[in-house]
Design goal:
- The chain has 13 helices and 10 strands.
- It is α/β, with parallel strands linked by helices.
- It has a domain at about 180-340: Rossmann fold.
- It has an 8-stranded mixed sheet, sandwiched between helices. A two-stranded antiparallel sheet has the order 1-2.
- Helix 2 (about 85-95) runs parallel beside helix 13, helix 9 runs parallel beside helix 10 and helix 11 (about 325-335) packs parallel to helix 12 (about 355-360).
- The longest helix has about 30 residues, at about 5-35.
- The chain is elongated.
- Belongs to the GTP-binding SRP family. FtsY subfamily.
- Its main location: membrane.
- Its EC number is 3.6.5.4.
């Protein structure tokens, strides 16, 4: 072949080589910046027709993995949450080991003579346990009468009497079941049970939402999470991590500061389209004296309940906050129509009286308790087991 022909061949091969390299670089760049995509099955996912329907109060959120612009990460391996019976055994054992309240009460009642100083000591112990003035007065009055009438000082009999009176204060007759079965919407179509979770900053609210999702998955419920705390990006990321561990979809906004009510609405919509049993909506931690934020919570309640009533409205309280927790509960009860309390950080039963105080104040049952930092350290509240643990 002539030199001219070889030159032409070399030029063609060079052009093809450059074109191939450029194409490969473009494809790799597209893959790098495409992001992890949207939560499977949620409206707005690829192939669903673009943005999801929302209530018109703000930009439509999207159900995404932790970030739409972050590099794709290897999803965590799916975990199997601990069963409810196993949780109850473990948590009962943990609470029993810290039965400070029961030990203090039985220590005083075991004395040979109960004088006024002893009764004052009992009163102080109960008040320090955050039982509240009225419950403490009622319990001690009944205890005085029963001890005088029965005329017994046998330790076993005294313990049995104290158990009976404490259990009466905890009120085992309250309905502590969680409404987690689908309901019929206004249009007669099935809708997932919507669980709204509210509370002030620092109570472990978002963590509680993640733990509740694990608890429901352990009960074979299909769950969708709604990250309506749109003012704290870390909250949505945290919730996405909890959901990924147990295969639960998370509906969240694609930007910080989006309308929380729209996220709540879209989470309910996504749950209905996915045929989920339960949608759990996490809300921003609110200070109970911030009227604007409480109004926002009221809006979330209205929007989330448009297609079907909210099944559960749970207030997360830190058991160590004592009587301040009651003030929080009163304000939230006015806005969120509370159906139950979740007590976190109930590790030391010296403050176990808050269970009685909050129920007596609001007539709302404690339904769940958290006794540790572990992922499965959340369990249904069982009054009999709680009192037995208090008494060691």
């Amino acid at each position: 072949m002539s030199t001219q022909v070889w030159t032409i061949v070399a030029i063609v091969l060079g052009v093809l080589l450059v074109a191939g390299v450029v194409t490969a670089l473009v494809l790799r760049a597209r893959r790098r910046h495409a992001g992890p995509g949207t939560t499977p099955g949620a409206p707005g996912a690829p192939g669903s027709g673009g943005q999801r329907e929302h209530d018109g109060d703000g930009p439509a959120p999207t159900a995404t993995a932790p970030s739409a612009t972050a590099p794709a990460a290897v999803p965590p391996a799916l975990q199997t949450p601990e069963s409810v019976p196993s949780r109850l055994v473990r948590l009962r054992s943990r609470l029993a080991r810290s039965g400070v309240l029961g030990q203090a009460l039985l220590g005083v009642l075991g004395r040979d003579h109960l004088d006024e100083a002893a009764w004052e000591e009992l009163e102080e112990t109960l008040l320090q346990a955050d039982l509240g003035i009225d419950p403490t007065t009622a319990l001690l009055a009944n205890l005085r009468t029963r001890l005088r009438v029965d005329g017994t000082r046998d330790p076993a009999a005294v313990r049995a009497l104290l158990r009976e009176l404490l259990l009466e204060q905890v009120d085992p007759g309250m309905d502590r079941s969680l409404a987690t079965s689908p309901v019929l919407g206004a249009d007669g179509e099935p809708r997932p049970a919507t669980v709204l979770v509210v509370g002030v900053n620092g109570t472990g609210k978002t963590t509680t939402v993640g733990k509740l999702a694990r608890l429901l998955v352990a009960q074979d419920r299909d769950v969708v999470l709604g990250a309506a705390d749109t003012f704290r990006a870390a909250a949505a990321d945290q919730l996405a991590t909890w959901g990924a561990r147990v295969g639960v979809d998370v509906v969240r906004s694609d930007r910080d500061g989006a309308d929380p009510a729209s996220v709540a609405h879209d989470a309910v919509t996504a749950g209905a389209q996915a045929g989920a049993d339960v949608v759990i909506i996490d809300t921003a931690g609110r200070l109970q004296n911030k009227a604007g934020l409480m109004d926002e919570l009221g809006k979330i309640v209205r929007v989330a309940s448009r297609t079907a009533p909210i099944a559960e409205s749970l207030l997360v309280l830190d058991a160590t906050t004592g009587q301040n927790g009651l003030r929080q509960a009163r304000v939230f009860a006015e806005v969120a129509h509370l159906t139950g309390i979740v007590l976190t950080k109930l590790d030391g039963s010296a403050k176990g009286g808050i269970v009685v105080a909050v129920q007596r104040e609001l007539g709302i049952p404690v339904k769940l308790v958290g006794l540790g930092e572990g992922a499965d350290d959340l369990a249904p509240f069982v009054p009999e087991e709680f009192v037995d643990a208090l008494l060691g």
